[in-house]
Amino acid sequence: MKKYFLGLDQGTTGTTAILFDENWKLVSRGYQEIRQIYPKAGWVEHDAIDIWHATKAAVKSAMVQAGAQPSDIACIGLDHEGESVVMWDKLSGEPIYNAIVWQDRRTARYADILAEEHGDLIRERTCLMVDSYFSALKLHWLMENVPEAKSLLAQDRLLAGTMDTWLVWKMTHGKLHVTDASTASRTMMLNMRSGDWDQDVLDIVGVDRKILPTICDSAMLYGYTDPIDFCGINVPIAGILVDQQAALFGQACITPGTIKTTYGTGCFMLMNTGDTPVYSPNGILTTVAWQIKGNRSYALDGGIYISGAATQWLRDGLKIIKSASETEAMALAAGNNGGLYFVPAFTGLAAPYWDSYARGMMIGITAGTTREQVVRATLESTAYQVCDLVQLMQKDSNVPITVMRCDGGATANNFLMQFQSDILGIPLNVPEIIDTTALGAAYMAAIGIGAFNSPAELTSKWRVDRIFEPKMSVDQREFLLADWHRAVERARNWAQS
What is the pLDDT of residue 1? Predict the structure, then answer.
């Protein structure tokens, strides 16, 4: 009888379910788009029930494609979008408000106040700077602005968590309220030394410990799915990771100095730093990569809020493309960017700028600017932002970056990958399986059920598909980067007033 490892990738714009066979070949892929809700400028939400339904639909699709039965699944690994949060009533199982997405900036003003009063303590305890990006500030907002939150808390009926916690709770019919160390490290509430929630920080942000999930290893037997609630499946949930840490694991970046970048809605770069956290004075985050058998591995993390989402904007907002697949040919047809630079700061800028008040800007427009150049400038903006992060990671880690592993949907765009290699001046490796978030989650679950004893056993499974070598001259690279940085400075602090 065939056995499949199920990797669930709950992302910002959709949920992906992938079945891998015992040789780690991708057998089937189910996908269900999820809706993003924009109640006000800078606010981004999901319907948490929609996410639950999308997860089940994606799993059913993958199983139908493979002809798999529930009993064919060996275990489930789950990765998720990170800092997004939801609160719900543990008796009714209903959310008390929409999930607040990691991109949401409604707490920017509160973050300013918090940073001034407690920024040093929070940075010292959590290794994160105060920013509306992180879960703690979103939970604070929910507690202060949703009347039902305090009444349910008083009745001991309130639960909260990131999307992994929500989905595991739903998959197990409310039996498990858990998260893993990598996720906890993204909340701005984890004490990086103790590995537990930091009570002082919880008191500062007004979050009661009893509504938070138990922090667990990233690989372990958490419990079993409930077949009535979850597609007839009754199998172990054995791996939980934040999506970017899952991609790092799926790219087999398990030794210090190895680095990957995932190109999705946003764009995220992680460098494995081993069993020692590396502190960055330059705006790069220190995060838990994963925790196995109580032993934590760490990473440096640089995030870009808007990458693939900018291409979606070209399609849905400007309507100058019909699909993302058109952009490669259009960018090549443009020949060059015509002096056009696009800073996609729709919801601010993340590392290394950490500017909640930056806003999107296109500069260098002339009467000769073409639709193709707008598309090219949009793709180039991702590569410039990644380059900013690479330069800082090299500086902070004192490790020269000589090659980067890339994954995510946008790696299918050969123009973007070649331009990225050119602007970095290093080779890029794209693996055979670009869904490395789901792959990493499935790998972690395999460790959780004992199919592998250690991460090192998985390195031989990684296989390269395409390699991009830099072709651009140093002078051209420096010229383009200089103008990019001029553009960024003009976009910063725009919404301050």
Answer: 57
Query: Class of the 4-251 domain?
Result: alpha beta
List, in sequence order, every beta strand (DSSP E) within 310-396: 341-343, 361-363
Candidates 368, 363, 374, 360; CA nearest to 331 is: 374
In the three-class reduction of DSSP (H, G, I as helix; E, B as strand; rest coil), residue 305 is classed as coil
> For residues 267 and 386, is the Cβ–Cβ distance under 8 A?
yes
Rounded CA separation 469/472 (Å): 10
DSSP string, 110-129: HHHHHHHHHHHHHHHHHS--
What does DSSP assign to residue 11?
A: -
Separation between Cα atoms, residue 102 and residue 83, nearest integer Å: 5
pLDDT tens-digit series, residues 403-443: 999 998 899 999 999 999 999 999 999 999 888 999 999 99
Q: Is the pTM of this model over 0.90?
A: no
The whole-angstrom distance between residue 253's C-alpha and the CA centroid of its chain comes to 16
First-to-last C-alpha distance (Å) of the chain: 63
Sign of CA dihedral 284, 286, 291, 297: positive
Number of C-beta neighbours around residue 126 at 10 A:
25
User: Do the Cβ atoms of 283 and 396 come closer than 8 Å?
Assistant: no
Q: Give the residue extent of every domain in the chain.
A: 4-251
The CA angle 142-146-148, to the nearest 5 degrees, is 120
Contact of 106 with 43, CB cutoff 8 Å: yes
Query: Whole-angstrom Cα distance, residue 451 to residue 370?
Result: 54
Calculate the alpha carbon distances from 97 to 130, 148, 229, 243, 348 in Å: 23, 9, 22, 23, 24
Average pLDDT, the chain: 93
Taking CA atoms, 241 is separated from 163, 214, 453, in Å, by 11, 14, 18
pLDDT digits (tens, 9 = 90+) for 383-399: 999 999 998 888 888 88
Q: Give the single-character DSSP code of 349.
A: B
